[in-house]
Amino acid sequence: MLKSAMVIRCCAVLAGLWLCSSLALASPSARPVRIIVGFGAGGAMDTLARAVAAKLAERLQRPVYVENRAGAGGGIAAAYVAQARADGNTLLLASPGEIFVNRIYNKSLRSSGVAGLVPVAKISFSPLVLVTTNESGIHQVSDIAGAAAKNPQGLSFASSGIGSLQHLVGDRLSKDLGVGLVHIPYSGASTATASLLGHQVDLLFAGLAPVAPYIQNRKLRVLGIASSQRSMKFPDVPTLQEKGVTGRSVEYWQGVFLPRGAPAELAYSLSDELAAMLKDASFVRQLDALGFETAFRSSGEFGSFLRTEEQNYQAIASALKL
Length: 322
What we know:
- With 322 residues, the chain is α/β, with parallel strands linked by helices.
- It has helices at 2-26, 44-60, 75-82, 96-105, 143-150, 165-177, 189-197, 208-216, 264-277, 281-290, 299-319; strands at residues 33-37, 64-68, 90-94, 118-125, 129-133, 156-159, 182-185, 203-206, 220-225, 253-258, 293-297.
């Protein structure tokens, strides 16, 4: 009898915590929610964050805005959020680069506390595409080595910054092709795309959002997809693995995180809000138009997924001797 009473009390406490978290999220009088993004305005992550912010504000009936903290391949933003107050008012929208890759390249971030971020939900993924200009003379991945041999200065590839996912995939491509591609980092995908269009670099890895308009008007050509499967948006474009680029594939996913120490109940409550958003057909269509496909994983599922992802990136780093 006593044991049953204790169980009932524990359940009541947990239910109360969940209710408090839900009320805190939905309180119109609460402070605005900030979604921190590790790259500049106009890139894939920034574009997604602004769509999420608008929809989340609609659901919570409180202001939600995006704050860009570019640098270190998104590592600065991730470290900032990890150390922020765990009150639900500061969120991080991040991809594998911010969570795993920047710590491979930036030793100063390895003990920054990023690992303490609380996973809320995985919400989407986007094809990570390798593109070049139509004037480059490179029509497929196999042309890259020949083009590099003809160019005394070699070929260069742009990324969203040192330690970004695009940086890692570019280094892997360089190693697998046996070509010394020169890495040119930028503060975000939009500036990297502008550099490619201006013929300042030869190649670019990017999510769809910043490059899709230029693919559609044929200013840019897609050479390959970095994931393990072809994209539904470009079914005729092969994956890099199909073109002989060996090694582990990567998925350019996007997820939401809370600061270190955030209570699980808050993560669950916010996860439920994001799940409801992704059931809205009009919002799903909006994300699709931006180049993102929905791929929801709840807080617990996302945490398990991240543990597997960490092993994958450790293996890639080891293969590249990083």
